[in-house]
Write a structure and sequence with these properties.
- It comes from Cupriavidus necator (strain ATCC 17699 / DSM 428 / KCTC 22496 / NCIMB 10442 / H16 / Stanier 337) (Ralstonia eutropha).
- InterPro entries: BUG, Bug_dom1.
- This is Probable extra-cytoplasmic solute receptor.
- Belongs to the UPF0065 (bug) family.
- There is one protein chain.
- The chain contains 13 helices and eleven strands.
- By secondary structure, it is of the alpha/beta class.
- The strands form two sheets. The protein has a six-stranded mixed beta sheet with strand order 2-1-3-10-4-11, with helices on both faces. Strands 7-6-8-5-9 form a five-stranded mixed beta sheet.
- Helix 3 links the parallel strand 1 and strand 2.
């Protein structure tokens, strides 16, 4: 080869090296993820079912990711306050929200939200589904669903039922019950299941449609008594296996279960979502989480982000019709 050509080739090759390295190197943001603690927002007060599930998952997720997963409770506003904080966070995978049914139904319950639910979030994983449980104090005269219906009809609008917030699965379970049983109950919303259960134990409210995770310890200790579950079939959880469904107790076709799932802000890189999904999936399939889930009747999912996205869309459509037919509003 002519000396001039040889020299030119060498100079071109040398100049191309940085570009080739840049093209083949992994993106720094993805290669390093995560390189700092991750925040998991729980839009409820501490002590409720969502909080307990988030904390149980956070420990194992942190071990898998090599960074701590810190649970950040931001209650209030029918979960909107905490959810909005995530919607406005950087789409880098370092902020997640442990969402519930409220995430899917808030657009139907509220005239205006500070975010567009369909466009502001990206699904990560459906953690699982569980029953709501109609619970009372052990000394309550309400022992069956029919007792509750009779008491409500005897004193329309006088019996109070608690929920962990407007728009939550517990709230909608109560509103659906009112509509299908044709009774008038007074809804008392709280900033989480913990405060609601405290008032139920203290006698400030009469009944509660609570998530199984939130009331499991109180059922086990005998501080609360389960009257019925809201699922189509009886729960397989040891503490609930003998508890009848509301449907079999005189309100045919009644179903109002709850669920937990993780979202990140829209625009989060797909590779980061995949990494978070893998860590979350590993967390829900640990022996410790499986045992806890079994005790509380939580049916573990652990699927893909796309599967969760489709599930939430179907939930939103189903409950939108219920909300409209029952004229339910949170505003």
């Amino acid at each position: 080869m002519h000396p001039f050509c040889t020299g030119l080739f060498r100079r071109l090759a040398k100049a191309a090296i940085p570009f080739l390295m840049a093209a083949t190197a992994p993106l720094p943001a993805l290669a390093a993820f995560p390189d700092k603690p991750i925040r998991m927002v729980v839009p409820f007060a501490p002590g409720g079912g969502t909080d307990l599930v988030a904390r149980a998952m956070g420990i194992t997720m942190g071990e898998d990711l090599g960074q701590p997963v810190i649970v950040d409770n931001k209650p209030g506003g029918s979960t909107i306050i905490g959810t909005d904080a995530v919607a406005k966070s950087a789409p880098d995978g370092y902020t997640l929200v442990m969402a519930t049914l409220a995430h899917a139904v808030n657009p139907s319950l509220h005239k205006k939200l500070p975010f567009d639910t369909e466009k502001a979030f990206a699904p990560v994983m459906l953690v699982g589904r569980s029953p709501n449980v109609l619970v009372v104090k052990p000394d309550s005269p309400i022992k069956t669903v029919q007792d509750l219906i009779a008491a409500a009809k005897a004193k329309p609008g006088k019996l109070n039922y608690a929920s962990q917030g407007a728009g939550t699965s517990a709230h909608l379970a109560g509103e659906l019950f009112k509509n299908m049983a044709r009774v008038d109950l007074n809804h008392i919303p709280y900033r989480g299941a913990g405060p609601a259960i405290t008032d139920l134990l203290g006698g400030q409210v009469d009944v509660m449609f609570a998530t199984a995770a939130a009331v499991a310890p109180h059922l086990e200790s005998g501080k609360l008594r389960a009257v019925a579950v809201t699922t189509a079939q009886r729960s397989q959880a040891p503490a609930l296996s003998k508890v009848p469904t509301i449907a079999e107790s005189g309100v045919p076709n009644y179903v109002a279960d709850s669920w937990y799932g993780l979202f990140v802000p829209a625009g989060t890189p797909p590779a980061v979502i995949t990494r978070l999904n893998a860590a979350a999936k590993k967390a829900v399939h640990t022996d410790a989480f499986r045992k806890r889930a079994e005790q509380e009747g939580l049916a573990i999912s652990g699927g893909t982000p796309d599967e969760f996205g489709r599930y939430v869309k179907a939930e939103s459509q189903r409950w939108s019709k219920v909300i409209k037919d029952a004229n339910i509003t949170a505003d």
